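Quick note —
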Amino acid sequence: MTDARNLRLISQPQRRVGRQHLFKRPSEAVVEGLLGAALAEGILRASLGLTVPVPIAGLPQVTAYRGEFLPVPLGGGFSSLSDLIAEATGGKRQSRQFAKVGTTGAVAFSNSLWRVGTMPASAAAAAALPGGTHNNNATAGGLQQANPSGGDTLHLTTVTSSATVQGQLLLLYDRLWNGLIALSSAATQTCTLTGYPNSTGRYSGTGAAGSSIGNFAFVANEAGATLSAVAHTWTMVYTDHEGNTGQTAAARAGISGAVTNRVDHAMNAIPLLSGDLGIADIESIACNVATVAAGAPTIVLASPLAFIPQLGANQPFILDGINSAFNLVEILTDACLAFMELQKSATTATTYTGEVTLVAG
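Predicted structure written out below.
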């Protein structure tokens, strides 16, 4: 297995590494003691389809990576805590509130929160394939944070969050691109991700090899009617993080009768081929049957930022990103910040309210 500590250092440009400290491997028993067995297991399952270690909000120096808890090398964009405080109090702090009213789900499956309100308001439907829609920090539905200026970088420092159902799990991610898949078609549908900005490092495309490490894809029935009750599978062809084209991911079984906003496959990401660490380009998506005649299946390209556990019901709590595994996660220029429910602990529709605090420096 690849040394995950080294992988993190070389593979996540969005989490710039400064001072580096190595920590002991986290104990699953300790994580379970802090989060509970169900949430800890949900985080491990959610990490299986992702190709980089993802920080866990509120846990000191712990990430989840391919079914394991791993340590975090310290990093950040500030020379000291005093520097961070000076930047925050000097006008470089910004907060974005959210209130996402989720929909009914299924236990151990994931839901997209992109097209639900109330704050930010529900996003618009993606444009149809092949072109789809590129998202940035001005896209309605995202948190719409301001980009840093003057050579600064922007970092996640704190999340305050509350859920109406206990034991839920959120993923904060950068939503790069999405495309509406045509219904009633078994034909391969081309995805044309041309003309997107690469200067900020959010995509790879024609940019430097490896800049797309960590990007993942999923298909969700976003704001559509319940999908037709029919067995189906999804097959995605993509360009990997090294620029190799024509990579065909293993077919992923869809969910017969997937409800509105449900991710239409097991896990929260379409698993990539062995050795691939990210997606530079989605080339095509195909459903194997032409009888999925209802719903709004959408293919999404995203980059993970942090797992946010929701322990108790209606109990607001602060997730510290300075002294935890957030580790001052960098929010890249033009990032479109969005949320996804992962590994739901109950079918109940859940409302999430809170605030994300960012500081530039």
